[in-house]
Amino acid sequence: MYLVAYFYFAPFFVTVLNHFLRDSEEISAKVLPTICKLISKFPEEEKTELLDSLVRTKIESITTMKNGRDTMVKMLEQLFEMFSPTQLMDSNYHEYLFDVVRNERAIKYKLRAAQVIGSKIVVPLIKGKKHRALLTSLTDDLRQSKHFRERQIYIQIAASAYEADNEIFKKHFAKNIAQDLE
Question: Is residue 21 classed as helix, strand or coil in its secondary structure?
């Protein structure tokens, strides 16, 4: 019964969602959490497809907007709250957060992105080998940067990792921070 309903309503569902996401930024930002909740109910294969076809399209359109930074960071915060970090990393959604950390000029957006990176990406994924090199590279680049703001972002990532999992903080951040203070 579920499969029949799924195949019958899925195309209509996608059309309706596309319509909402094409609306103004204010409307699409408010309906995005609901859309993400609906997408999260789909089977895994369809989740990835819907994320790529609906949400990525919206993020890409926001990156070209003049004042879309707040909306984009908010969308990414919601995505990493609702979906598996592994699934989002495999679909390269982390690149949007990394881009904010590396290239955004406003510190408030950098700090929000760093919060998500620390608590929603580093903590659950750094134990596994698949993403460890990428995450370690990012954090090491920030930690060793000549720019104070990038080192500040590193500390924010470490602080959010500490809040989420003290053991991850001890293993991957505390020793480096102590060495840098010497």
Answer: helix
- The percent of the chain in helix, strand and coil, each rounded to the nearest 5, is 85, 0, 15
DSSP-derived letter for residue 119 is I
Q: CA end-to-end span of the chain, whole Å?
A: 64
pLDDT tens per residue across all 182 residues of the chain: 444 444 445 555 566 666 655 656 666 666 667 777 777 777 777 788 878 877 787 777 777 666 677 878 888 888 898 888 998 999 899 999 999 999 988 999 999 999 999 999 999 999 888 999 999 999 999 999 999 999 999 999 999 999 999 999 998 898 888 888 77
Q: Which residues, 6 or more positions from 16, have their beta carbon under 8 angstroms from its beta carbon?
A: none
151/44 Cα distance (integer angstroms): 37
Tell me the C-alpha distance between 171 and 173, whole Å: 6
Residue 81 tokens, joined: 């709250």
DSSP for 30-88, please give it.
HHHHHHHHHHHTS-HHHHHHHIIIIIHHHHHHHHTSTT-HHHHHHHHHHHHHHS-HHHH
